[in-house]
Target: Cytochrome P450
Amino acid sequence: MAFLSENWFIDVVIAILMFVVTQWTWEYLSRTDIPRIRNLPEVPRYMPFFGHLHALGDDHATFCEKWWRKSGDSVFQIRLGNTRAVVVNSFADCKKMLVSNSQALIDRPTLYTFHGVISSTKGFTIGSSPWDDSCRNKRKAASTTLSKAMMKNYYPMFDLESYCILRDLHRDSIYGREVSVRPYIQRYALNTTLTLCYGIRMDEVYDELLREILEVGSAISLLRSASENYQDYVPILRYIPNNKKTARSKELRGRRDAYLDLLLNKVREMIKNGTDKPCISAAILKDEETRLTGVEVGSICLSLVSGGFETIPGTLVSCIGSLSTPAGQIFQERAYEDIMRHHSDLKEAWSNDFEKETVPYLNAIVKEAGRYYTVSNMSLPRKTVTDVHWNGAIIPAKTMILINAQAGNHDIDYFGPDAGTFNPERWLDASPGGTFSEKSSSSHGLSHLSFGAGSRSCPGATIATKLIYSALFRLLSLYRIEASETDPPNTDYVDYNAIKSALVAIPRDFKIRLVPREERLAGEVLRVGEERTRDFYKE
Ligand code: HEM
Model:
């Protein structure tokens, strides 16, 4: 004590020095690509190297949604390891950020594992491409293929693929047997994009190639997730010997390259034999007015195949789950009545009218499924190309922007106090006579955030909506769907997802029973459909 008091000045200097050195070391190890943004709240308590990664856990969207509700700040900054990101939560702020700053947010960030390892051979998908001339060309080509004007060309495909769901469900659910509907919907989504890209489809639900594409695609999408792959944000982890993430990425890259080459070779073979079907890759291989390179064509096909194979099943399967519950029985009955109101001859409607999206109640179910089950809960990350002025803060160029679509889609200030409930009727006006019409406000503008918005919004939104509508039309017009008592669906908008860290939600498995509304009609329409399948293979 005596020593301390005699040298008190030196003690104080040492203490200050130690404090400064500790502070400096802490700050040094917590550095981010973009320095702290002034006048924008930051989530407190970050760790050196990792930032908020641990606090965010597996489910970033739900952590941020809760933080927004707790702090009252809808827009705040977080640290994903060495990367600073701005998270946007409320519906109004997500919309303003994406639409009012459309050009400033046109870029996408690149990640070490996905861009550096997995995509090193076949190029980036559109959704992961930074904005440049090549990305512009690819996006333009994909948007043309997926545009509203092109949809009528795909009617035979919608017809065949939605028929096949019913054909196989009819067979497998006979005698009240319970079925898990996801595999049928996965084939539906994948066959659609495979047909568009390669003119190829698979008839079996458990086809080997189909399952390989789905398995590899899901595993790769998991490696893009921040919570699954710390090495993208904590560079030091890349140098750990026997790095399992990099090894796994290389293995998946090899498997993906193999099936992409196989598909393209099949198209080459069909062109040689004169049996090819109109599709993107055949058009390019025959060099029909294209300025795209081979890698760009591969990237477009990959983007379309990977764009729909998880998002459509995630949305449609979860929607079927909600409809199968006791509360959902009312929605099913009203949808059926609305179908009958608009299509007095169901057989006729089945053969040529189901794609037209004329049944308001079905449109409302499709919209509500998209909103309630926000399958891409954090959307796809964006990156600013110029400064963005936000309520007194300047978000600099090259900052990662994360749109919390899950939070915005369940924003009670925008969707009302029942935002956390699955209710298709929020999109409808009911007349005293019991008929429904679409709310005029819901038919234009941004209904929900699940397809993103602005410069990099989802070009697949139109075809995805058509596919979900067509499948529901056919399913609900022939059957009543009932949830299994032993394996019921989980319909919580967060917990329905079995893998919280996945980029696209994977619904927990559940089973349903299908009760035919009119046995004879089901038999008749399925027989007609069978003839059309044979025609497809004959052509
Ligand atoms: C329910 C189905 C779908 C959902 C929920 C969905 C969701 C999304 C989201 C959230 C984005 C990012 C938007 C943004 O940054 O603002 C996106 C981008 C994209 N989607 Fe979809 N999508 C679906 C279906 C599809 C389908 C069927 C395709 C193709 C056939 C597709 C192709 C793409 C592509 C190519 C992009 C990248 C666009 C770009 O970066 O410029 N999507 N999608």
